[in-house]
Amino acid sequence: MACSVSDSPSLKDLPKVATDLKSQLEAFNPSCLKDVDTNEKIVLPSAEDVAQEKQHTALLHDLEQFQTSALRKTETVEKIVLPNAIDVATEKNQKSLFDGIEKFDATRLKHTETQEKNPLPDKDVVAAEKAHQNLLEGVEHFDKTQMKHTTTEEKNPLPPIEAIEAEKEKNKFLNGIENFDPTKLKHTETCEKNPLPTKDIIEQEKTA
């Protein structure tokens, strides 16, 4: 069954591994690893940590062993704070203002007459209003019989030569993938190489 390009990536899109890295991974020998002992370290608390822990323990012990019978009886004395001069002056001003509002004499007001003014629009406003009215009248009284008959032509522009050639190359490439014959492949053998370490690596291994 032939598979489409959208289902599987092409050969050039597949990830590639470097040749030297692939050879090193294939030739890796786990016996070359060295045994390493793991040292577990227990970090002791500092002097400040010990002091804080002792203080916390002593506080909890005092709370647990606290005797309420050792408390002394006390009496609460309520003190009344008198207002200062600024507070007294503010209170007087507010009281006089409220008294003035409550005792206000409306008969002392003078009679006034309200004049309504309707300013006329200027020339620009009148011209804009006329243009708007003319536009509305033109739309409402539009005569469709004065319209001319027109024919709509649909144009389907052909693609350029470059696009046609690109589409042909794409179709040729897809056909080559779908109709690929694996029987035409030649048999090859893979040779695994295990490169020997250099002198520098041997000297570093000896000194390690």
Q: Give a quick account of the main beta sheet: strands, pairing sense, barrel closure.
A: none
- Approximate strand percentage: under 5%
Radius of gyration from CA coordinates: 51 Å
Number of helices: 6
Give the overall pLDDT as a whole number. Answer: 83
Number of strands: 0
Report the span from N to C terminus: 58 Å
Structural class: mainly alpha
| Unreliable segments of 5+ consecutive residues | 1-5
Give the proportion of residues in helices: 40-55%
SSE string, helix = H, strand = E?
HHHHHH
- Form type: flat
Structure description:
The structure is a single chain. With 208 residues, this protein is mainly alpha-helical. The chain has six helices and no strands. It has helices at 19-26, 47-64, 85-102, 123-140, 161-178, 199-207. The relative contact order is 0.07. The model is unreliable at 1-5 (pLDDT under 50).
